[in-house]
Write a structure and sequence with these properties.
Blueprint lengths: L4 H11 L3 E5 L2 E4 H17 L7 E5 L4 H12 L3 E4 L6 H11 L3 E5 L3 H7 L7 E5 L7 E2 H4 L15 E3 L2 E2 L7 E6 H12 L11 E4 L6 H12 L4 E4 L5 H11 L3 E4 L1 H8 L14 E4 L6 H11 L3 E6 L6 E4 L13 E2 L4 E5 L21 H4 L1 E6 L6 E2 L3 H7 E4 L2 E12 L5 E6 L4 E3 L2 E3 L1 H9 L4 E11 L3 E10 L7 H11 L8 E4 L13 H15 L1
Parallel strand pairs: 3-4, 3-5, 5-6, 6-7, 11-12, 11-13, 13-14, 14-15, 27-28
Antiparallel strand pairs: 1-2, 8-10, 9-10, 10-20, 15-16, 16-17, 18-19, 19-22, 21-22, 22-23, 24-25, 26-27
Helix pairs in contact: 2-3, 4-5, 7-8, 10-11
Length: 527
């Protein structure tokens, strides 16, 4: 299998004149794109960088992300994708931990890199979209050349995204060339008859996230299709692009589908060109799914995966049909089971889904564990975390997803709860501790807890419960602005409530379920 870029090279050989990328009306053929990745790889080699060197891509969905991604891999380096919504506080750890030597980012974001640069191994900063102090413009960074693809092994690391943990700093997820090639191949087969050169994929899922990277970008490019990146989500722009360009593949998070159906002119658009609509990131409300399907005579297929699994492990495939409320069956080559606390297998039920209010969930649920060629090599330099993440059973290495669910005799799996105390808002994962630690740094905050509360659009949204200091004179808006200044926009609390004290157990742990109950009661009284 070797270097993942050989999959792109094969597409170039077969479909060289076809459009690989169309961005805001400008088309780039496969041959042109291959030349651009070569220029990026040559730029790294010219600066003495290559095998195993980390290159951070701190970008939205723009062509330089794709060029930098495949150019880095072509040179044998490792891609470190970073959320362009992150501020200096958030990228500092990622850059230092990964030891990235190059950062490619928007000119407007260069100051965040410079703010933390002295604490990192960064040698080169490359700006996209304009000049910036201390950075080389992207076009000037590139070097002419057509370097050979660096020889890499199946188990060599190709991409190192970061995922937050329930405690401590974000963890580097080591995804190998085998991981990414296998999952991109499996993702391409989700569409009936597979993705091919006639397909055109909507690239609105962020490319720094493994879902957009593998399931949309790579699955499309490795099979000769056209990829249409969008730098930011806009429902009207997405609808127009799908209709005008006859796009055939759309993957999104539930909030995107919800935004589409709530457009005042939603009924005016013709989306009949779509032959596969996938959704992941969190469970999609049934009402949203039904409404979208009725509006556009399309079918939404729900899937499941994690950064650590490259990402897809389960999907409701068109070939097998689907069960609303299920994450689907496992992809070919991937195994999954439900286990109890002793790692004993939990028997499947006859057929799901069950009524969770009436079923004895304790009897049928357990943690979902998975194995397969898509499962990460491990967390970067975190042996303790790796020991907790995996269980060896015979010749099989099982990864603990941390999600609680059940399965049925037909092989469909169902997620009922997240073992980790994670908030899933608009498809993004937010761990409360990260927000709480920032709140505790505010001089007016004596105590704080963060919880997820229901939100019609995002599934969940973030609410902060704050005990102010005795002499504090602080407002809700000031707390929100403080969080917005230091965290990505999607992580900041949409609601802030000041309370006299937080409910705690005898061992001092905050009882967040009581905060949610009190919030529900307050909402009911307001109604």
């Amino acid at each position: 299998m070797a270097n993942i870029v050989t999959s792109l090279e094969a597409a170039v050989e077969d479909h060289g004149e076809n459009t690989a990328i169309e961005f805001q009306g400008a088309q780039t053929s496969y041959e042109e794109f291959w030349g651009q990745t070569g220029a990026f790889a040559a730029a790294l080699e010219e600066r003495g960088l290559g095998v195993d060197d980390r290159v951070a891509l701190y970008l939205p969905n723009v062509p330089p992300f794709l060029i930098g991604f495949h150019g880095t891999l072509r040179a044998g380096g490792v891609v470190v994708p970073m959320n362009p919504q992150y501020k200096a506080r958030e990228i500092g750890h990622l850059l230092a931990d990964s030891e990235a030597k190059v950062v490619v980012t928007l000119a407007d974001l260069v100051p965040f890199v410079q703010e933390v640069r002295d604490e990192t191994a960064v040698e080169h900063v490359v700006s996209v979209g304009g000049e910036a102090d201390g950075a080389t413009e992207f076009e000037a960074f590139l070097e002419p050349g057509d370097p050979e693809i660096a020889d890499r092994g199946d188990d060599d690391v190709a991409v190192q995204p970061y995922t937050s943990g329930t405690t401590g700093q974000p963890k580097g997820v080591q995804l190998t060339h085998r991981n990414l090639v296998s999952n991109a191949g499996a993702a391409a087969q989700l569409a009936p008859d597979g993705i091919g050169p006639d397909d055109r994929s909507l690239g609105v899922l962020p490319l720094f996230h493994i879902y957009g990277m593998t399931v949309v970008m790579n699955a499309t490019l490795f099979n000769g299709g056209a990829f249409y990146p969008m730098p930011k989500w806009d429902a009207q722009d997405a609808l127009s692009l799908i209709e005008d360009e006859d796009l055939t593949i759309m993957h999104g998070v539930p909030a995107m589908y919800n935004d589409i159906i709530n457009q005042p002119n939603a009924e005016e658009f013709d989306l009949s060109s779509l032959r596969l609509c996938g959704v992941g990131g969190s469970g999609i409300p049934v009402e949203v799914l039904r409404t979208f399907e009725e509006l556009y005579d399309a079918t939404i297929y729900e899937g499941y995966g994690l950064t650590e699994t490259s990402p897809i492990t389960h999907f409701n495939s068109p070939d097998e049909g689907r069960r609303v409320g299920s994450i689907g069956t496992t992809l070919p080559g991937i195994d999954a089971k439900v286990v109890d606390e002793s790692f004993e297998a939990v028997d499947p039920i006859e057929e799901g889904p069950v009524d969770e209010d009436e079923a004895d969930l304790h009897e049928i649920t357990g943690e979902i564990v998975v194995s397969g060629p898509n499962v990460m090599k491990g967390y970067y330099e975190l042996p303790g975390a790796n020991e907790e993440a995996f269980t060896e059973e015979g010749d099989t290495r099982w990864f603990h997803t941390g999600d609680i669910g059940y399965h049925d005799e037909d092989g469909f799996f169902y997620v009922v709860d997240r073992e980790k105390h994670m908030i899933v808002t608009g498809g993004y994962n937010v761990y409360p501790r990260e927000v709480e630690e920032l709140l505790f740094e505010h001089e007016a905050v004596a105590d704080a807890a963060v919880a997820g509360i229901p939100d019609e659009r995002r599934g969940e949204t973030i609410k902060a419960f704050i005990v102010p200091t005795s002499d504090a004179d602080v407002t809700e808006d000031e707390i929100k602005e403080y969080c917005l200044t230091n965290l990505a926009e999607y992580k900041h609390p949409r609601e802030v409530e000041f309370v006299e004290e937080l409910p705690r157990t005898t061992t001092g742990k905050v009882q967040k379920f009581k905060l949610r109950e009190e919030d529900d009661e307050t909402a009911e009284e307001a109604d």
